[in-house]
Amino acid sequence: MGIPRGVFGGPKPEELSLVEALGDVPGRAAQAERERDAGPLVFCLERVAGAYHDVYERCPAVPQGDGKPGAVHAGRASLAGAVRIALGNGLQMIGETPRERI
Questions:
Q1: Interior/surface letters 35-64, b for 16+ CB within 10 angstroms, e for the rest
Q2: Residues 6 or more apart in contact with residue 13 via CB below 8 angstroms
Q3: Which residues have CB under 8 Å from 65's CB, separation 6+?
Q4: Alpha-carbon distance 71 to 27, whole Å?
Q5: How far apart, in Å, are the Cα atoms of 5 and each of 22, 35, 48, 70?
Q6: pLDDT digits 0-9 by tens, 36-70
């Protein structure tokens, strides 16, 4: 990505909440398939979307002002990519067409 290595100061609480919500997706998807009830998966996807919104608002993936991109920005961009995949796959499972951009 052309982003230099940097010092990792630890994740922010919003990022941890998002990773936790993402980690719940496979289990809820399996539950939805097993029980033939999309409800738990829909709730989980809403939780992922809400957590992503918090990260997007409070933890920018692009440096502010004249700042140079660092390792934390690369990690946040990768996290956004994981959210896109999880939401896209989850929406397809419940019969919805995911949007191109989130």
A1: eeebebbbebbebbeebbeebbeebebeee
A2: none
A3: none
A4: 30
A5: 25, 45, 28, 7
A6: 999 999 999 999 999 999 999 999 888 888 888 88
In this predicted structure, the answer to whether residue 20 has a pLDDT above a threshold of 90 is yes
Contact 72, 9 (CB under 8 A): yes
Distance, CA of 81 to CA of 72 (rounded, Å): 14
Per the CB < 8 A criterion, the answer to whether 14 and 54 are in contact is yes
pTM listed for this prediction: 0.85
